[in-house]
Amino acid sequence: MRKFAIIAAKSVLAVVSLAGVALLAFSAWLIWHYEHGIGLPTEAQIAAISPAGPACTADPKRNYVALTEIPPLLRNAAIASEQPDFYDAWSLNPMVEIVLAIGTGRRPRPGGITQSVGHCLQFLSPEGRRQIDPIASLLFMQRVTRSLSRDRILEVYLNENYFGRGAYGVAAGAEVYFGKRLAELDIDEVAYITARARQPFRSRTFDTRPRDVVIDRMLTAGLISEAEATPAKSRPLRLKDEPGDQAKPVNQ
Question: For residue 75, what are the CA distances in angstroms to 2, 10, 19?
Answer without folding.
Answer: 64, 55, 45
